[in-house]
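dude i think i finally got it to work??
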Amino acid sequence: MPESETFSEIVLTAARSLGAEIGSPWFYFQIGAILVLAGIAYGIAALVRARFALTPHVATWPAPLRLIARVLTESVGTLVFAVLAGALRLGMVASTWPSRSYLLSVAANLAVAWLAIRLITGMIRNQFLVRLISVSAWAIAALSILGQLEPTARALDAVAVTIGGLRLSPLLIIKATVLLAVALWIANLVSNFLETRITRSRDLTPSIQVLLSKLVRVVLVVVAVAIVLGAVGIDLSALALFSGAVGVGIGFGLQKIVSNFISGIILLADKSVKPGDLVTIGDNFGRISAMNTRYISVAAGDGREFLIPNEDLVTQKVTNWTYTSKDTLVKVPFNTNYDADPRTVCKLAVEIAAKTPRVAELKPPSCILSEFTERGMRFSLTFWIADPYAGMDNVKSDVMIALWDAFKREGIRVPYPVRELRIRGGALPVETIADDEAP
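look at this
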């Protein structure tokens, strides 16, 4: 773009060209063609909406594809108009002067810009990004209409900085940003689709499913970045200048993130924990609901979820209640008075536990006399359950309540702390203080 040519001069030149075209028959031909094409597009759009039901055909599609299909269906008139206007313009450019199809070019560019804005903004919830994309799309359309798109691109590419073998310009940065956003979106879409397929596979264990999902996502992101860098003409070897310093900075600044990522891969590979396991990590007890790149999510029974870094599971003690089997042993300690017969107590406790719902039948309960204490005889009742996910405290409570009822029925007393105060050397003097003398 010449430096002496300002934006106002560009607009003035375009206005003069348009004014000159008004007196030409081609101007009215283009106006009529635009109106006819708009009518055809409107009729096709009405026919498509009346004859085509979108929902049954896209119900099983991924959410982004459903959104694209919905936007295209709603904007089918604009899409048809853009295609028809573009085709007619190409035909006129090939058969006559390009200036005689200027209005068709304007109409096609505006239709394409509108479609792009509808498609992109429909998938973005951030209002700032929506406004930024809208302004950018209309700016590109305006530059194309004014015939200044290529000169603007050359001007942006002329301002460049060369670092090592890498040439950076505003145009290169804009291209790389747009292509990277599109490539990462496609990679995320494909990754979600493959992750859904992997999760539905019954031949893979939960650990392998998560591991494959994470590896697929990482590989797709790396491939997307490599493709974008190659598409914008950046030689990967030119980045060698930055690799040393940036690598050291990332190593120090992101060492915990990298450590958690590697720890997550180790956990998935050795299968020490997997989604669905019942674990105790420190003071946290619950079921593993998800395994992510940086942390695992442990869902407690009270609605809370503990987000525990993967590194903690590798370096700290972890109790996995369902590592080899879902069967879990529950212990119920209790005391009785010395007046009770320990054999009768053990027999009664075993019978009560066996009748309690959720107690496993294949592994019968057992009760032992474990200790003589100053508060009575201490017993330990143990039984197995096959569904620890449903809770252990609740079945333990059911057994203890049933024990209490049985002990009351059989006359077995549960000891409780009793303290006797003995005063030696006679009675203590007692002094009465009147209300008015009290402090």
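The two ends are 98 Å apart (CA to CA).
im so relieved honestly
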